[in-house]
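# step 3/5: fold
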Amino acid sequence: MRGFAVLRRSHRPPDTALLTIIFNLSIINQVKTIVDRASLPRTRNQKLRARLFGFLFFLAVPATILLAISIGPAGTGFSNGIVALLTPLINTLSDDLPALNHLLPEISPATQSLVWSIRLPRVLLAGLVGASLAVAGATMQAVFRNPLAEPGVTGVSSGAAVVAVILIVTGVAAKAPWVLSAGAFIGALLAVIFVQIVAGLNGGSGATLLLVGIALNAFLGAVIAATIANAPHSDDAQQAMFWLNGDLTAANWQDIALAVGPITVGTVILMTLIPELNLLLLGEEQAAATGMRTVWIRQLLLALGALVTAAGVAVTGVISFVGLVVPHLIRLAIGPDHRSLLPISMCLGAVFLILADLVARSLFSPVALQTGTVTAFLGAPALLALILRQGGRQS
């Protein structure tokens, strides 16, 4: 009996505290595994391509800027464009270093004014907006776990458009140069707030947000069409249609000043949320298992994506396909890891929109196309090719 008692004591259930420790350690190990999976490229080739593409596109941004400021209907030449760009800097430094006055050849005041007053702000704004649309598109595709999601899916573009069209048709936009951009920015933010409030009443899931955004886009599209159709002046209707297609013809330094703040703040915060973006790709249940507040994080990511999109759309009008095609293309090349996906998408988005704007103002000179028209011409076939390629792989 004594042996049997010893045997029973030796097989008593483990202590509850020990079970709790073992359980917590297993959870921590699972969380670490999930985070590691979310933050690493899928294959070695994708990791190498991420480094290569990051290096190439990072160098492509300044190269494209220099190319774009040197080409146009009034040809300045590549060397003259660079000289005109560097002349103000050299003139500033020449006060302390007189020898710098002879470093650059003479450039005409007209060429310098063309570069600094017209081309440079247009090129920089194109790069800024292209980067913002690309990073917003990558964010939306991660939040909705849908590679065909784009920045306007939450109504941000339609919200900006409906306010802009109303301001143009009523003549309010002509009262001050900043009214149109400010109104479009506010309209975009109000549309996103509406989507988040309505979706939040039904749980705030990704599917609900998507459906509410689709419904709002359809409603605001009808309002825009009715407003333009009943415009009292045909010139106002034409200007509204021009804005809806997106263009950089009137870009200036004031537009850059209006857009750079929100885009920079939103992008920097999005960069700090890269681990959360990666976890969302694994599904809500696995993300929640790590302790992440999925609903709150999703709302924050949507708000930040809407912020950078609204700032870009407000100063250029609605430019399509940049936020859809660019991140999707980069994802196919390097994988879904947002540590590489976001910065590379930003660089390619900037390069893509700068080149699209260069084509718009130079290809059919003296006739200038709208920048949004060129992005649609280039983006639609590219998207179709990607869809067909992906469908062929699945079959």
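# step 4/5: annotate
Confidence is low (pLDDT under 50) at residues 1-14, 19-28, 30-38.
# step 5/5: archive (pending)
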